[in-house]
Amino acid sequence: MSEAEETERATLEKMSKIWVGQGFKVFIQPSGKLLPGFLQRYRPDALLIKDDDKVLVEVVRKGQRNAEERVRRLKELMVNQNEWRLEVVYSGENVVSVRRVAANKILESLRSAEDLLTKEPRASLLLFWASLEATVRNLFPNQTSRPQSPGRIIELLAGSGEITPSEAQSLRDLMMLRNRVIHGELNAVVKPSEVKPMLQLVRQLLKSMLE
């Protein structure tokens, strides 16, 4: 086994513990019988299955040639395949686990976000999003041991019925704004009137969590 293959195998073994903890059945280097037909001859590095949540895993090594092309090709094969999603794992990087935060700490964060709302609305937005993810981590502990993308946070809340479709859309709008700010668009306009209702939404989620 080459050094590159050994690194990939070690990465999959490390990640498997996390996936199993999230309730997935994990299939490393799956055989043809397990592979969905739309993949044609492509063989992913792993399959994850938990009820209706089905995941194709592609491990990308640092310095790997044609890595972006492989991921692009896989995404093309998955177009219109709504039953499956893709997770790209980068080998050689540390796997970060995020611990849950107590509800009182989240409430403190929300109060800070409210204090910043009129003076520094961009900072308020980012603190709100951190509070939202911390809340979601408490609501779905088995699915959020690692940092979550903003889209995944909304998906978990909407899919479980914790928020309404209109609330999900409001969060998606804020997600786009959050992404612009966090990636350096420092002149992006954040309106307090857009953030304030979502702060209340997190409070409601916390209340339902504690009941």
Describe it.
InterPro entries: AHJR-like (IPR040902). With about 210 residues, the chain is of the alpha+beta class. It has 2 domains: about 5-90, 3-Layer(aba) Sandwich (Trna Endonuclease, Chain: A, domain 1), CATH 3.40.1350; about 105-210, Up-down Bundle (Four Helix Bundle (Hemerythrin (Met), subunit A)), CATH 1.20.120. It contains 7 helices and 4 strands, in the order αβββαβααααα. The chain has a 4-stranded mixed β-sheet. Helix 4 (about 120-140) runs parallel beside helix 7 (about 190-210).
How is this fold's topology laid out?
Blueprint: H1 3-21, E1 25-28, E2 46-50, E3 53-61, H2 67-77, E4 84-91, H3 103-116, H4 121-139, H5 150-159, H6 165-182, H7 192-210
Helix pairs in contact: 3-4, 3-7, 4-5, 4-6, 4-7, 5-6, 6-7
